[in-house]
Amino acid sequence: MTQAIDKEQVVIDEFRKLSPEKQDEVIDYIQFLQFKEMQKQDVEHKEEKEPISAYEAAKEFAGCVGGDSGDCEKQVSFLEAAKEFIGCVDGGPGDLATNKKHLEGYGR
Question: What does the pLDDT look like over 48-58, one tens digit per residue?
Fold first, then answer.
């Protein structure tokens, strides 16, 4: 426990020695590390879930789509709401442009 307190005090002491610009950089870096940790936890959480269809995913968030923000605890973008489902679909083309026949004559 004292080791954690010692580390915390060292960080605080060193932080105070920095210019305001460098302090902002340190804060940005801490936020970056927290974001990476959150992504890591999201990946671990996603691996535990069974894949579901896009329709089922949309149904989970349908209450927030209707335009009445009172239906939602917090309004978020669709990307934010569906981020846990990114990459949960197995198979299918990685890129819709893989169908060469569809692209025939495109851009001419």
Answer: 667 777 777 77
